[in-house]
Amino acid sequence: MNNKSDVPIQVRSGTFDILKVNALQWDWRDLYHWLLTLHWPSFVAFLSGVYLSLNALFAALYALGGDCIDGMPPHSMASAFFFSVETLATVGYGHMYPATPYGHVVVTAEIMVGMFGTAVMTGLIFVRFSRPAARVIFSRGLVLSNFDGRPALMMRVANQRRQPMAEAEFRLMLIRHEPTLEDPTMHRFHVLPLQVDRLVVFPAALTIRHLIDEHSPLYGLTPERFEQCNARFMASIVCVDKVLHTPVHSDQTYTWRDVRFDERFTEIYSDHDDGRVRVDYARIHDTEPAVITPASRDK
Asked: Comparing C-alpha atoms, which of 208, 161, 51 is closest to residue 59?
């Protein structure tokens, strides 16, 4: 039996678009995960569609039963639909009620569906509300310039929550085309060591840096070489929400087009009048030309 789908499956990771072909078909067990990944408007629309469809189905069954519901006009879909809504919600106004064994059977089936459906919808809504989100901002681009006289690839991240995150861990990975004698299409992954890859507390914003030396996979790369090897970067942050004590994750992807050479991020920290530190989130993505120092020019 062929369980593979002929329709390509699109997977989006940041700015990367991947088409999976000849992959396994969608399994009904994926429904729960799919519902949790929907945006709220799509999630509400899906539940509303299921709710209306169930009521329309049972309304048709009531209408086909003739006089199975006492007080309901014969073959009235509108009356049958609203009776189904009342039954599914176990409201029971009393104006209409089952009058035949057929009506009792359909009502019993609908009540059971309503009980299970309410439990499932309540669980889904609870999980969606209770699931924490990282709410982390990644800079729109990367910058490559000198830091303390050494070339460095840098990105900026910021915590948007009012509370600090705990045990924040940062990672940055390079993906580039590296052909081999056997495979000219080979792409390889390189983990880029970071100057600071972990913070005990992550309260506001931070510039993440990979210092480029002779051991770095970025050593000697020019803007032209970045394009030729189709350089891409994957960044991620894993930290703990201090309110819910739950790990949260956020990630971002970049291409060689997002790397700005000989630029640096503008300063966003400043001293407040009362001694506190001020962080300007409106300038998280702003960059400016890097200053070339004599020490860095010698290198």
From this structure: 51
- From the number of C-beta atoms within 10 Å of its C-beta (0-12, 13-18, 19+), residue 153 rates as buried
Which distant-in-sequence residues (6+ apart) come within 8 Å of 72 by Cβ?
62, 79, 80, 83, 96
**Angle in degrees, 0-180, between the axes of helices 101-130 and 77-88, rounded to the nearest 10:** 60
Crossing angle, helix 40-64 and helix 77-88, to 10 degrees? 120
User: Residue with structure tokens 């396994």?
Assistant: 24
Q: Which amino acid, 208?
A: I
- Residue 290 makes CB contacts below 8 A (sequence gap 6+) with 143, 145, 146, 262, 263, 264
Measured between alpha carbons, how far is 192 from 124 in angstroms, rounded to an integer? 38
Looking at the DSSP bridge assignments, the partners of residue 279 are: 269
* Alpha-carbon span 231 to 289, nearest angstrom: 22
List alpha helices for 65-154, DSSP H: 77-88, 101-130
With 0-12 CB in 10 A as exposed, 13-18 as middle and 19+ as buried, what is 117?
middle
d(CA 188, CA 94): 69
Per-residue pLDDT 10s for the chain (299 aa) are: 455 556 666 666 655 666 666 666 666 677 888 888 888 899 999 999 999 999 999 999 998 888 888 888 877 889 899 999 988 888 877 778 888 899 899 999 999 998 998 898 889 888 888 877 778 999 999 999 999 889 999 999 999 988 888 999 999 999 999 888 788 888 899 999 999 999 999 999 999 999 999 999 999 888 898 888 999 999 999 999 888 788 999 999 999 999 999 999 999 998 877 878 889 999 999 999 987 655 444 44
Looking at residue 256, the DSSP 8-state letter turns out to be: G
Closest-CA residue to 187 (of 201, 197, 173, 207): 173
The 10 Å Cβ neighbour count of residue 200 is 8
